[in-house]
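Aim 2 progress update. The chain analyzed this quarter is reproduced below.
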Amino acid sequence: MTSDDTRMSDALYRRIERADWARLAPGLANPLTEAEVVQLRGIGDRLDITEVREVYLPLSRLLSAYAENTKRLGAETAAFLREPDSTTPFVVAVAGSVAVGKSTIARLLRELMSRWPGTPRVELVTTDGFLYPNAELERRGLMSRKGFPESYDRRAMVQFLSEVKSGAPEVRAPFYSHMRYDIIPDAYVTVRRPDVVIVEGLNVLAPPPAPHDIAVSDLFDFSIYVDADVAHIETWFVDRFLALRQSAFTNPNSFFRVFADISDEDAVTQALGFWRDINLPNLRENVEPTKHRAQLVLNKGEDHVVESVLLRKL
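Predicted C-alpha cells:
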C-alpha cells in the first residue's frame, strides 16, 4: 500500500484492530454450533468457532442494524410521501479475490443474520450464475478470461438486482455448477422478497463500463471486501487446488477430472499456472482496485484469520 493509499484509507475508514472488534460482541450469544461452522467452512479455510464469535457475530449484528434502520427510513419516507410502505430487500455485497474465503463468509453471514429478529429471511446469490455459459465464452474467445468482467452478463446481473430492489415478489438468477464449471440450463436460484439478499462475487464492486451505465454496486446497500496479502492468497489457491484433487475433482462429472490423477508436483505447477496467468492478473487489474468502494474491509492474515477491520466513516 502506498502512502497515498494509506492516507486515503485513514480519511475514509475507521481502522479497528481484531482485539477491539472482538470486544464489540461481549453480550452476543453465538447461535452456531461447532458442527455448523465446519459445514459452512470452505475447502482450505480455517474458520472456527472463535473466529465466528469474535469477528463475524459482531459483523452480522452491525449488518442487521444497518438493514433494520434502512427499513425504518424507508417506512418514514413512505409516511412522509403519504404512500404505502414498500421497503425492498437490503442488499449486501461480499467481494474479493479467488481463494480469499469470501464464499465461506457469505454463507456464514447468511446464517448469522437470519438469527437476528430484524432480518429473519436472508438469501444468498453468487455472481457465478451470471457468467456466460461456456459455449458463449468459447464463441467470444473468453474461456481463458473466465472471471474477468467481460465474462459476465452484466446486463442480466443489473436486471436481477434492479428487480430485487424494485420489490418484485419473485426474482430468478441462473444457477452455476462448480462441478461442471458451467451454467446449468433451466436451473435457477429463486429469491422471494427476503429481508436481506447477500451477493457474493469477484467483480461486484466494479465501476460501470461506461459513464452512463448503472454499476452493479449502485444497487447495493452495504458492501464488504475481503482482503489479504497476494502471496498468502496464492498459497491458499494452490492448497485449495491440491485439496480439491482429493475430493471434487475425483467425481467423474467434474470438469477438472483430468487433474485428479496427476502428481503433486504437476498439480502445483498447474495451480500456479492458473493463478499467475488468470487469477492474479484479474485480481490486480479488476478486483483489488475496487477495494476502496466497500463500506467495510476485512483484512486477513497468513492463517486466514481476520486481523483488522476497516469501517467506512459515516
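The mean pLDDT is 92. The two ends are 23 Å apart (CA to CA). These observations will guide the mutagenesis experiments scheduled for the next reporting period.
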